Amino acid sequence: MTTCTAPRLHHEDLDAYQAAIEFLALSTAVLAKVGRGHASLADQLRRASLSIPLNIAEGYDKRSAAERCRYYDIARGSAHECGAVYDASRIPGVVDEQAFIQGKALLVRIVSMLVRMTR
Fold first, then answer.
1. Which residue range(s) make up the domain with 113?
2. The pTM is what?
């Protein structure tokens, strides 16, 4: 039996992109458990968590360092926003402790990598 491997774009090899996709998957699982009373938190998390890998991918393809940094900075800002949403989600118990710790650890990794990528 042969395994079919999908073609890959170069940005997919970036550790920051892979961590961002992992965070998006975790956030998607968290979002599946969010009740209707917390729609604003869910909406913020949905948009911000998707913004991280999208901006990393878009920035990777930019020709100038300044343009690349701009997109990586936007991704970094979205990661910080996700951290704040996770903090706010703990108050009403929207995110459980394990997902909180895992999500924050991923965000710290992502932000750290993005800071290095903009130097």
1. 18-117
2. 0.93
